[in-house]
Design brief:
about 20% strand; Arc Repressor Mutant, subunit A; 50 strands; Chloramphenicol Acetyltransferase; seven-stranded mixed sheet; about 35% helix; alpha/beta; 8 domains
Length: about 1400
């Protein structure tokens, strides 16, 4: 009203200041003048308005400046009545919400102390507890149904629980007592009951135990100390250290906080955080497992001895830093090292007692003596860009000092505001720092109850929505560092190791100046490196000699044994040695010099392999060349590296003859007569054996030069390790220019075995491989995984066992091994040992191995395993001075040892870059460019190229995890994912290979459609990790070496996006096409405008492309502006793609019943809530089992609504009847009431079941519509967030509640664009208020799902249906409450639980 009475050019100064704060503008009054700090994008008109209103603004600020902080009022002259309500603080509210059954990390906030007290006087302890509960009133606080707290009387019968353990001796009782720690929270009365303290006494033979559980809702760190001191005094009969605080102090504190929200200091805090919040980085990202629904905490502690702690404080002072800043920086430092993220946000617990404004009589002792939770939270950015620890600690302290004055807008509220402005925004951090170091305190409080005979056995602290809570405190002069963490959320032992590194860092900082200014982090403690150090102890004496020794000895000892078996017959060791000797002599005669590169250009055959051996025998290094290479590439490679001699078959010779550059061509088999074998040399270890050139499609090929010593080391180790011997036949499917062939050839000769060389087909040919496995009697298989996977698919189980049953050793390397492949191999070849191998061409074929004897269900991939002989691995952080990374943390993979290549041939600069020297050990390293991590047992886990993780619209997605989830879907045999586009246009694309018999037109289990896949994946993956498009392909494309071809997948994705992919109907439905018509292009442009994501296909789903309920409203508005047609919001379910929206514009009619999701099972009809549309059901729809066919009832426009709710339900019943199928009815909010009235029309519809989800009905007859409550409810619904009623509220008496909230919460959104939606909301709300509720129908199974955490008076004039005094829920109905609010009950994890409830209740009826 005040606003309307002002002149047209005037504005309410408080409203102006609030709006300025929301735009990030701070305004201060200094010496009668305004001091303004505005961001560059602050609206000019607001700043001009501030200038025009200078005097009233100055007066408003001066009237309530709010500095230096809230002022707690003096005690009331008259005591407040018992049970007088007062507000909860932000932190209390967060604890209250987090105590409910949150989808993840839910727990009561409490601390438990366990004591052994052999001489416990139970009666005295009972009395001490009651005395202290009476002394400190906040221990008796309870939360009422209105969300406020009250102090309640202590029940006369309250006392500790007494447990008889007299049947247990002391040792047995101690073991049992430790187990009680897990259930300590069960001792706490309900938050709504009080008191906020629970205790149990366990009396065993010869001893007793006390478990004390304290709820943090009413206690901060100082309060715990006060409570423990007073309990000890009361138990031992000492007088208390100080008089009790007058009643009501904490209540007045909370009221002071509420009053402070109207101060300019608080508005400036809003402005400060409006500008800071968008710049806050995310939380740390240490290795973590999935977050459990219930948080169970474990505790790790270390202590810094008093002298070391004193030295650390002294060095901190010398650096100009507070002890708390240094300790917080040290915590950030280890989190930085464990997460690989330089900058992140921590939640810092702030003690506000000392920040309160002093009263008129000076310092008040009450804040220091009052038991209550005076804590707040602050979101602290930890900037990791500083070069040294000192610089990073200084930056942290500066940031803390800049943010601390604004902590009266708590981190809890900052996060809530961010979510209101951008629903789904992830602001905040589950990593907490809390300091109990209080330099301002004049007393020293005990950390726990200290009384004679009381021995502390354990402590345990739980806080909701927290992963790792780090506290620092001082006990007996020592620094105590505690790490309370959710045990199930981290790999076992990880937090122990993090704490050990933290202790080591603090000791280093206390002991010397150097760690403060060192450019890199200190080494990890030796204990953390012990397992990998042991794994790297691979020194082993191998036979040595030369790679031709096996050929020489075979020719001498077993001359008639077969050395090579190919399409042109078998070659014995004698024949092979003779041929190699003759061809080597020919090379030498042609002028081949020692160390010269000699090409081998031929089709795959035993002759090709013998030619490679001939080059080695001549003292040269063979260079495999491909007959299918482009002539230009072949010519350039020969010229660049001066290769003047080539051994070639007829085809190779023809290719070389066509080159412009002359090349000396020699035949694979030099002419001569069989006779005595020519002597085969023993090359020196440093002489080159071969140079393999990579076959990348861009850039200059790299020639990997492998010396004899490296090759021989790998070959001899593998032959000995896996017992390869003369009876083995090694099937060689790899081309000579793929280094797996080097083991096939030299490994077979080293073992005196046979290498089987099938001819090479133009494309992968499983029939050919199967023939050669069986025909040759192969015993050793050595390929990339994809080839064996392909063969198994081709053969089928029965035939695979027949063909592969003779294999005894299967070597798989070069690419990811599908987790199901080892077991498939064992079924086909039960005697085969399956070995995963890894390494690099630059490190002599392989450097590590892992015998796959089992598949752990938790694996994402088969581990890399352990290093081979005389080879070593390091996982390092090159940006941190090649520091070792901790266990479980991804780092860059380096190889060291005898297998390293000599160089990239002829590329010294590249060699220097990729083969650095370890700065501490002096080892020569090879930088693989891969990511890996160590497990605590020293096992390596390969994580892929840098990296297999990708960014999709700002979120980091693990492609391997998505592929694993896709491969687990019915009908899917293999999957691969790629990311196309960048930034906002990035899209995650999935390619699927169907199981045999699962493709289109077959009888096998089909691959689910895109909608079903999205729903299934949504139960295990975050929404941003669910692919936006799915393409079914016959097989994943492979490179020539049998590895997955990522470039081909990207090209295929682009092809599909452009509409050129072609394919069957299923594939087309999954992939879609580009816009073709002018209107489709215009719709795609509107999508991109509202979603910020490029639309590549008219078949993309709106929500999968980044759409939300907010952007849905904008899209509907923009479509109306562009085409003059107002589509219902619910049409986004029926027409969720550009193509379907285009069709809908052609045939637009207002329909009540819209199809939402197809299915071949039971039909579910969802009834709209008070908003009139169905968008609120989106999470529930995704969570429902795939077979359900889902329809939705949407409201007609407000101008066409009938006069009563039953009339509207009658229309809905007719629409459902026209469907002609039995249906289940489900309604949330007003939808439940409408569903019930629809079900009454048994002449039209007989529902299979009726489900009402948190429905409200009129509390009294004739209630008026509260415009303020209606507007608040509409915006709460629209913004998709409801934490408490104070979040979205309208000032009393405001003439335009809707306009006020639109300007406050959506200042950039035209208010008129939402007015139509609001008019419908109001009209439906009024129908509900005017409707006289009736008992629910009993003609079908009835399920009522209340939201337990919603207040009964949340909506003006309404009351929860299940609580209506008329008893509307009939006997026999199932009432299944969920611990949610009215809005959260249909979202996230709650939607999944709701779907399970519905399905469990109705499945039998649908069968």
């Amino acid at each position: 009203m005040e606003e309307t009475q002002r002149g047209a050019g005037e504005r309410d100064p408080l409203a102006l200041l609030r709006e300025l704060a929301e735009r990030g503008v701070t305004v201060r009054a200094r010496r009668g003048r305004l001091s303004v700090d505005a961001p560059p994008d602050a609206p000019r008109e607001l700043l001009d308005g501030l200038t025009a209103a200078k005097e009233p603004v100055l007066a408003a600020i001066t009237a309530h400046p709010g500095l230096p902080g809230p002022r707690v009022a003096a005690a009331d002259p008259e005591p407040r009545p018992s049970g007088h309500p007062f507000p909860v603080t932000d932190l209390q509210s967060a604890y209250q919400v987090g105590e409910s059954d949150f989808p993840e990390l839910a727990t009561p906030a409490y601390i438990a102390h366990g004591f052994e007290v052999p001489g416990l006087d139970t009666g005295r302890w009972h009395g001490a507890l009651r005395t202290v509960l009476a002394r400190h009133e906040m221990l008796r606080a309870a939360v009422g149904p209105d969300g406020r707290q009250r102090v309640v009387p202590l029940d006369d019968g309250w006392g500790p629980a007494l447990v008889d353990w007299s049947h247990l001796d002391a040792a047995e009782a101690r073991a049992a007592f430790h187990r009680e720690r897990e259930t300590a929270a069960a001792l706490l009365p309900g938050l709504t009951d009080g008191p906020q303290l629970g205790c149990a006494v366990y009396s065993a033979r010869d001893t007793a135990f006390v478990l004390l559980c304290l709820r943090l809702f009413v206690l901060d760190a100082r309060s715990i100390g006060l409570l423990c001191r007073d309990l000890a005094d009361a138990y031992e009969g000492r007088p208390f250290a100080e008089p009790p605080v007058a009643p009501g102090y904490f209540a007045r504190y909370t009221e002071a906080l509420a009053a402070h929200r109207d101060s300019q200091a608080h508005r400036n805090a809003v402005a400060h955080w409006q500008r800071r919040t968008p710049a806050l980085p995310g939380p740390p990202t240490p290795p973590a497992l999935s977050r459990p629904a219930r948080a169970r905490f474990a505790r790790v502690r270390h202590r810094l001895p008093a002298p070391v702690w004193a030295a650390l404080r002294e060095r901190a002072r010398g650096a100009g830093l507070s002890a708390n800043s240094v300790l917080c920086a040290a915590y950030a430092e280890v989190l930085r090292r464990w997460s690989g993220r330089p900058s992140f946000t921590l939640t810092v617990l702030v003690a506000t007692r000392a920040m309160l404004a002093a009263g008129p009589n000076g310092t008040d002792p009450a804040p220091a003596a009052c038991v209550g939770n005076f804590g707040s939270t602050l979101l602290l950015e930890c900037d990791g860009t500083g070069a040294t620890f000192a610089e990073r600690a200084e930056a942290l302290q500066r940031r803390l000092m800049a943010d601390l004055p604004h902590t009266w807008l708590s981190g809890v509220e900052v996060a809530r505001r961010a979510r209101r402005e951008s629903p789904g925004a992830a602001v905040g951090s589950p990593f907490v720092f809390a300091s109990g170091l209080d330099e301002a305190a004049s007393d020293v409080l005990p950390p726990h109850l200290r009384a004679e005979g009381w021995e502390l056995v354990f402590k345990s602290m739980h806080t909701p929505q927290v992963l790792l809570d780090h506290q620092v405190s001082e006990e007996d002069g020592e620094l105590v560092c505690t790490f309370d963490h959710v045990a199930e959320a981290f790999p076992e032992g990880m937090v122990d190791e993090l704490a050990a590194a933290h202790a080591d860092l603090l000791r280093r900082l206390a002991g010397a100046d150097a760690p403060w200014t060192a450019p890199h982090p200190p080494p990890l403690p030796g204990a953390l490196l012990a397992a990998r150090t042991a794994a790297n102890r691979t020194a082993r004496d191998l036979p040595g000699g030369g790679v031709l020794d096996g050929l020489r000895e075979g020719a001498a000892r077993t001359p008639d044994r077969v050395a090579l078996h190919g399409a042109d017959g078998r070659t014995t060791y004698r024949e092979a040695a003779d041929r190699v000797g003759r061809t080597a002599a020919a090379l030498t005669a042609s002028g081949t010099a020692p160390g010269e590169l000699v090409g081998v250009l031929a089709r795959k055959s035993p002759g090709q392999y013998l030619a490679a051996l001939s080059v080695v025998a001549a003292g040269g290094a063979y260079v495999p060349l491909g007959v299918d290479w482009p002539p230009a590439r072949l010519d350039a490679l020969l010229a660049r590296h001066g290769i003047g001699r080539v051994l070639a078959d007829a085809e190779g010779a023809r290719l070389l003859a066509e080159l412009e550059r002359p090349v000396h061509v020699l035949p694979l088999d030099a002419p001569g007569h069989p006779g005595e074998p020519l002597p085969l040399p023993v090359p020196a270890p440093d002489d080159l054996a071969y140079v393999i050139f990579t076959s990348g499609s861009t850039g200059t090929p790299k020639g990997v030069a492998i010396p004899h010593g490296g090759l021989l080391n790998t070959v001899q180790d593998m032959v000995e390790r896996f017992g390869v011997g003369p009876d083995d036949r090694l099937l060689s499917l790899s081309e000579l220019h793929f280094d797996l062939s080097a083991f096939d050839l030299f490994g077979a000769l080293c073992a005196g075995a046979t290498v089987v060389v099938p001819p090479c087909a133009a494309r992968p040919d499983p029939d050919l491989w199967a023939h050669w496995v069986r025909h040759s009697g192969a015993t050793v298989w050595n390929t990339v995984p994809a080839l064996l996977d392909m063969l198994l698919d081709h053969l089928g189980d029965e035939r695979a066992a027949d063909v592969l049953g003779g294999l005894r050793l299967v070597l798989l390397s070069g690419d990811w091994i599908p987790l199901g492949l080892p077991d498939r191999v064992r079924r086909a070849a039960p005697k085969a040992e399956v070995v995963a191998l890894g390494g690099a061409t630059e490190a002599s074929i392989w450097s590590n191995y892992h015998v796959v004897d089992r598949i752990d269900p938790s694996w994402k991939s088969v581990p890399y395993g352990l290093p081979l002989a005389n080879q070593r691995y390091h996982v390092l952080d090159p940006d941190a001075g090649f520091a070792d990374v901790p266990h479980w943390v991804p780092g860059e993979l380096f190889i060291a040892g005898d297998g390293l290549a000599a160089a990239y041939y002829g590329q010294p600069a590249l060699t220097a870059a990729r083969f650095p020297t370890h700065p501490r050990t002096g080892e020569r390293l090879y930088r693989t460019g891969d990511h890996a991590r160590y497990r605590p047992d020293g096992t390596l886990e390969f994580l892929g190229r840098l990296d297999s993780q990708a960014k999709v619209r700002g979120y980091r997605v693990d492609l391997l995890e998505v592929e694993q989830q896709l491969a687990a879907q019915p009908g899917v045999r293999a999957a691969a994912c790629v990311v196309t586009g960048t930034g906002a246009a990035a899209r995650l694309i999935a390619f699927l290979v169907a199981e045999e018999g699962g493709g289109p037109g077959t009888d096998g289990e089909p691959v689910p459609g895109p909608a079903a896949l999205r729903a299934r994946l949504g139960t295990t993956l975050p929404s941003y990790a669910v692919p936006s498009a799915f393409h079914t392909v016959a097989a994943l494309p492979l490179t020539a070496n049998g590895k997955r071809d990522a470039r081909a997948l990207l090209a295929l994705a682009e092809e599909h996006a452009a509409g050129a992919g072609g394919g069957d109907a299923d594939r087309a439905a999954a992939s879609g096409r580009a816009p073709r018509t002018e209107r489709e292009s215009a719709l795609a442009r509107l999508w991109q405008e509202v979603c910020g994501t490029a639309v590549r296909s008219v078949d993309d789903d709106f929500f999968a492309s980044g759409g939300s309920s907010v952007s849905a409203v904008r899209l509907v508005r923009r479509i109306e502006e562009e085409f003059g047609v107002r589509l219902p919001l619910s049409s986004l379910f029926e027409a969720s793609t550009v193509a379907r929206q285009d069709a809908l514009l052609d045939r637009h009619v207002d329909t009540l019943l819209v199809p939402v999701r197809p299915g071949d099972g039971a039909v579910l009809v969802l009834v709209h809530p008070v908003g009139g549309h169905l968008l609120g059901y989106r999470a529930l729809i995704d969570a429902l089992p795939a077979p359900y066919a889902v329809y939705g009832l949407q409201a007609p426009p407000s101008g066409r609504l009938p006069a009563t709710l039953p009339e509207l339900a009658a229309r809905y019943a007719r629409a459902v009847a026209d469907l002609g199928r039995p249906v289940h009815l489900l309604g949330w909010s007003m939808g439940g009431v409408l569903a019930a009235e629809t079900a009454r029309r048994t002449d039209l519809v007989q529902p299979l079941s009726l489900t009402l989800v948190d429905s409200f009905v009129a509390a009294t007859d004739g209630a008026d519509l509260d415009e303020r409550a209606a507007a608040a409810g509409f915006f709460t619904d629209y913004l998709g967030q409801r934490d408490d009623v104070a979040e979205i509220a309208v000032p009393a008496g405001h003439p335009d509640p809707f306009g006020h909230l639109a300007a406050t919460h959506l200042p950039r959104e035209p208010a008129d664009a939402l007015r139509g939606l609001y008019d419908q909301y109001r009209a439906l709300y009024r129908l509900l208020l005017d409707h006289r509720p009736r008992p629910l129908p009993q003609d079908c199974p009835l399920l009522v799902v209340p939201a337990e955490r919603e207040r009964p008076d949340a909506f003006g004039g309404l009351t929860p249906l299940h609580r209506h005094p008329a008893g509307l829920v009939p006997p026999g109905a199932r009432v299944a409450p969920l611990p949610e609010t009215h809005y959260s009950v249909v979202r996230g994890g709650a939607a999944r639980r709701l779907a399970e409830l519905f399905h469990t209740r109705t499945a039998k009826g649908s069968a």
